[in-house]
């Protein structure tokens, strides 16, 4: 079979590999869609300390069961989690699976979905990490359940709800999912912010925020749009310390700020006016991936139409063109790129 394997930074090869065989407690799937995201572009450029090469990449996975076990039979349509909690540590036992210190990942510790066939590790099945794709949901859409699950975790932690004014900074695929999810959770107004005017325009044309804002003075623009109050929730969906600092300045009293996107490892320090946090009773939250339960619920949100994703999938490419797909993502020219091995 054909796979796309990471060897070293800058070196991902589409090459032949033996088809996987299901070990004890495992299933194998015929991968139908594996979507790409900024993480793949980052791995391609810099590698990742959890990846021992050569490794088949790809972590936004949907396909058909080939070899089943337990409730899974050949032909079943399934979506697979990306982040694998251990299920046994103190955090996992308290239901905090997104911060499991023993977390492993598909495409990092295990071969991922940029392949015609893939084995689903027993550890994934043990934590209910395989979800049945509801009728009417395509494989491409189902593969977007993984990033949507991460977005869902972020908005739960930031308590996005009825009547909130929400600002989303960063108009990539994650930003677009944040806009749609905030709407489905009852946000009053949603403002989308980006420094890249072209990308902002493309994203705004799809997800229709109440306002699309760019430029040097985004804080002032958001304050103006919110009658001087600021936003109840500000979500930074960009690897930008400057955006995080702006987020703190545009939050309303008792506002919640989600540092959804991480910062570069070599530059993770920002300046924070602690008195803003103190007097305005701000809450700053992080977000680290998603739990198996978030994946199941994200798939439900796609299936029942709460968060449509079909129109966010702008590129569908065969496995041979995975490098082109990652390049398109890196250049910010696409919303969602999905690979169809
Ligand atoms: Zn991803
Ligand atoms: Zn754990």
Automatic annotation (TrEMBL):
SUPFAM superfamilies: GroES-like, NAD(P)-binding Rossmann-fold domains. Keywords: Oxidoreductase. Pfam families: ADH_N (PF08240), ADH_zinc_N (PF00107). It comes from the Bacteria. Residues 23-125 form the Alcohol dehydrogenase-like N-terminal domain. InterPro entries: ADH-like_C, ADH-like_N, GroES-like_sf, NAD(P)-bd_dom_sf, Zn_alcohol_dh. Residues 173-301 form the Alcohol dehydrogenase-like C-terminal domain. This is Zinc-dependent dehydrogenase. It comes from Streptosporangium longisporum.
